[in-house]
Every structure is written in structure tokens, then in C-alpha cells.
Design brief:
Layout (H helix, E strand, L loop, with lengths): L2 E4 L2 E4 H16 L10 H6 L13 H17 L4 E7 L11 H11 L2 E7 L5 E8 L8 H15 L2 E6 L6 H18 L1
Length: about 180
């Protein structure tokens, strides 16, 4: 390989090429995410105090108990998991921007309860529609969940708030819905 004479110095061409690549890489690199908060500092700040909280409120607990009891009779190998992020349950099949955006919308949602088979495959989502459920954009959130779950082949079971206080009615409702799913599985 050749050399270049620069200001009276003979410089090997490979050094010039490497230097040019380094300069180009530095010039076109993505800017560092300055201004992004330090996550560890934020969660460990002295002014922030943490405490644990119950995963389910009282009425959600009643729905959970009912779902567990019904499954114990119908399909003992199936399980009910509470408060599951839907981003862990479904995924898009493509890599397009539309796929990424759609996934972001469902990833921010959770299922009150996820019914899974003995291998952990999702079969149904049980949504308890408690008194606080209808705040804000609840109708839109539910529509997003229903749409995505239907496309993924996962059943959507709604439990109205008043039903959680009537155990026999709740059991009958969940039994009917879950029997239908068991017949298809």
C-alpha cells in the first residue's frame, strides 16, 4: 500500500483511511441520550419511600378465588395468573413500524387474570369491570384488548362489578365461559 507525503512526513495510506473512518464514525454517531434520567438514582432517592401493596383488591380476590375453584373442577392442570402484562402474552408477527406501534399499545395494558393451559399457553383473559373501571379512556383500553386478544385467538371474559359479590352467579358465569374454552382446547 502507498504512502502520502503530508507536511514533509510520509504517512502510510492505511493510517489515513483508519483516521477518516474514525472521524466519520464520530461525526455521524447518534447523540448520547443526555437528559435521560438515571433510573437507579431515581428509584433509590432518599426522598422516595417504597412499600409493597396487594396485587389484588378485595373484589378482584373474589373473582380470582372463583376462577381457581372453577378451573379446579373443570381443568385442574390449567392455571389462573393475576395482573399479567399483555406484552408478555401476545406479540406482533412483523417488524414494520406499524407492528412496533401496535405492540407498544398492547404492551402498556394488563389483564386482570390470564387463564393458561398446563404448558403456559394463554387461553383466556378475565377482566373484572370494577367500579373504578369506567374512568378515563376505559372503553378504548377495553376495545384494544378485545381486538388484539381476538386476533391472537385468546378469549375475553368480562365480569361485571356486581357479579363479584354473588359467588354462585360468578361461579356459574365463569364455569359457562371456561367450559366453552375447554371444549375447544
Amino acid at each position: 500500500m502507498g504512502t502520502i507525503n503530508l507536511a514533509g512526513y510520509s504517512i502510510p495510506l492505511w493510517i489515513i483511511v483508519v483516521a477518516a473512518l474514525v472521524i466519520a464514525a464520530l461525526a455521524f454517531r447518534r447523540p448520547h441520550k443526555r437528559g435521560r434520567p438515571d433510573q437507579v438514582a431515581a428509584v433509590s432517592h432518599q426522598a422516595v419511600s417504597w412499600r409493597r401493596r396487594a396485587v389484588l383488591n378485595h373484589n378482584e380476590g373474589l373473582v380470582y378465588e372463583s376462577a381457581q375453584a372453577v378451573l379446579e373442577q373443570l381443568k385442574p392442570s390449567w392455571n389462573v395468573w393475576p395482573q399479567v402484562s399483555l406484552g408478555e402474552v401476545v406479540e406482533t408477527q412483523g417488524r414494520s413500524e406499524a407492528d412496533k406501534e401496535a405492540y407498544r399499545w398492547i404492551n402498556s395494558k394488563r389483564a386482570d387474570f390470564l387463564v393458561v393451559d398446563d404448558m403456559g399457553w394463554p387461553l383466556a383473559v378475565i377482566e373484572y369491570q370494577g367500579k373504578g373501571h369506567y374512568r378515563g379512556n376505559a372503553a378504548e383500553r377495553d376495545a384494544v384488548k378485545r381486538t388484539v386478544l381476538a386476533k391472537a385467538g385468546i378469549q375475553y371474559i368480562e365480569v361485571p362489578a356486581e357479579m363479584s359479590k354473588r359467588r354462585s352467579q360468578l361461579d356459574a358465569h365463569l364455569r359457562a365461559e371456561l367450559q366453552e374454552i375447554a371444549a375447544l382446547a
